[in-house]
Amino acid sequence: MEMKTLTQKAVGAILVAVTTASFALAQENSSPPQLDLRLYDIVSAASPERLETDIRKLVSFGTRNTFSDTVSQTRGIGAARRWIKAEFDRISDDCGGCLEVFYQRSLVKAEENRRVSEDTWIVNVIAIQTGTRYQNRYVIMSGDIDSRASKGADAVTDAPGANDNASGMAGTIEAARILTEYKFPASIVYSGLSGEEQGLFGGRHMAKVAKEKGWEIIGVLTNNMIGNIEGIDGVVENNTFRVFSEPTSVTEPDEARRRRRFFGGEVDGPSRQLARYVHRITDMYIPNLDAIMIYRLDRFGRGGHHRPFNDEGFPGIRIMETHENYTRQHQDIRTENGINYGDVIEGVNFKYAAKLTAVNAITLAALAWAPPEPRKVKIGGAVQPSTRLAWDKVEDLDLAGFKVYWRDTTAPQWQHSRFVGMVTEYVLENIVIDNYLFGVAAVGTNGNESVIVFPSELMRRGRR
Ligand SMILES: [Zn+2]
After folding, report:
1. Three-state SS letters, 114-165
2. What is the pLDDT of residues 319-367, one digit of tens each?
3. When you count CB atoms within 10 A of the terminal residue's CB, does the N or C end of the chain come out lower?
């Protein structure tokens, strides 16, 4: 101000300089931000209108049955997959070619499959947004291309599959539109899988190829039916969804199973940690929406495309609506005893599908922005008043440090955490190892965290 003397100005300038310097110093030693504000933008970007347009388009192919017409430009699974590929290509054009889009084919033989009457090409459509730093680390979102009527092998009857699973497919395309506006250190895969209804063929093939290529998969988010809010029991509800996850990896060695009896971890496998991640991030960024954790691989005796990834040892979960409507699933369109059957467009709530798409998009983004998770997490501390954790160093330019988590042995979610900075071991004083479960995550300078890693090794007393 004009009234200020030179001296006052000088003092002010010095004060500013000192404050800035100490602030910078404090920042260097402080914890990363609690939130990444870009994730709020991603949530609001998911568009119910675009989802409606895409679901209507997928429905317009009449049937997308695995065995349906592949030649027609307007009807059948061939036309549907060509449209999906063209859509991914268009998204890629809009981001300067940031997606690698391709068909992934596998031949399913009739002689090897009870539900396949003639040899059939199963064709997935895959779009990869390659990471800027970790090209071989992948987070994957999937929906399904195929639909079915009452009979699974019926290739001609109308099977709109509006909710099962045009909703998941459209959600995957929409997530690609949103996330291609950004760049990520890790790779993101948007996949349309096929042959779901007859035996999870598309997912099986994709998982096998990923394994052969040595993909490091951070997690697979299978979306199967994300648009129905009216349950068969009449309940209408749009503020919860379900996350299915297997408790521990089905591929773990027997030794891991034996050790678990003594050290715990019955509900702490990699897929379950991924499910907890989805639960946590939904709470953080999406108001009035809650993830219901379902402690099982999938619905009772039924399947989804995350399972073949689990079979190959990859973490994967199923995201879906809370309330299913069985009169709309796998049904020929008809009216019987006053009940309307069929998976028609009227059964899809586009706002709800957009919310669940947003859940996927922020999970993909946060995981792809986060540093790699810590490896070789060790734990020790029996007959001591404290718990010790140690892990291998993570090399990442944007690593802020690590966060140690713990919870009661009966708690479904991580309850307590402590940011411990740039260290590779930490002692939680006055925390008795017997009474809690523990995990460690890597945290980026942008606030995004890796999946929490449950300890898999023991520390000997007095040494690592
Ligand atoms: Zn189905």
Report:
1. CCCCCCEEEEEEEEEECCCCEEEEEEEEEEECCCCCCCCCCCCCCECCHHHH
2. 999 999 999 999 999 999 999 999 999 999 999 999 999 999 999 999 9
3. N
